[in-house]
Every structure is written in C-alpha cells, then in structure tokens.
Design goal:
Layout: E1 2-7, H1 9-32, E2 53-58, H2 61-67, H3 77-91, H4 93-102, H5 116-126
Antiparallel strand pairs: 1-2
C-alpha cells in the first residue's frame, strides 16, 4: 500500500511552514509509536484544483498484503502507448500531454496503472 501526500505549489506557498511542521510531527509520533494521532485534525481533499506534486512512502510488505486492493486495468501498457502515439499524431502532442498531466504524469511511464482505464476513456474522447 502507498501513502500519497499531494502538495501543490500553491499549498507550499501558503501553508509551507505548517506542512513541514506536520510532517515533522508525524515523524516524531512514529518514533514514539503513536502516529495515528497525527491524522485526527488534518482536513483532507481541500485543494483538488491544482496539479499536485507527489511524495510517496511505502508501507511494509506485511501491512500491504492486508490492506491493498488490487488495481486492474482492461488495457495493457503497450495498448495505451500505441493509442497515445496514434492520438498525438491526430490531434497533437500538446493535448495528449495535458491529459497525462491531468492524471499526475508528465509522460506515459509516470502514469499510474490505477488511472489506465479512465485515461484511455478520455484519450479516445479526444479523437
């Protein structure tokens, strides 16, 4: 399982000190073995309009098997790569790149598999 913290540039400009302080608090609580307290007063999903920067942390394998839900896609990576190339030739690279960025990726290898289905749906709608 991954814990993903999405922080936009605007978030850092406005709340940078608070964000850094909360991360430090989480680290200290983890060291003390009581990191669940950290999440009690944090509002979630306040800033969804901006393109996020992503910080990813892995959870140990033992916990992962208990909590992870399988992410399946009806598309293989090569199918998506082919469709991206075809669409880029038809409507231009700029629109394809904008769609990739909507899903947090600057290029196809950065596109997370959990977004494959939704990405392909929108890609086909662009044609």
């Amino acid at each position: 399982m991954e814990l993903v913290l999405r922080i936009t540039k605007n978030d850092m400009e406005i709340h940078g000190d608070e964000i850094i302080q909360k991360i430090k608090e989480l680290y200290e609580l983890k060291q003390e073995g009581c990191h669940d307290k950290f999440f009690q007063n944090i509002p979630m999903n306040e800033h969804k309009k901006e393109q996020p920067q992503t910080l990813t942390t892995s959870i140990p394998e033992k916990e992962q098997s208990q909590t992870a839900m399988p992410q399946t896609s009806q598309y293989q990576a090569e199918e998506i790569r082919s469709e991206i190339a075809k669409t880029a030739k038809t409507i231009g690279k700029t629109k394809v790149k904008a769609l990739l960025q909507k899903y947090g990726a600057d290029n196809f290898p950065q596109l997370q598999q959990e977004y494959y289905n939704a990405f392909m749906k929108e890609l086909k709608e662009l044609e």
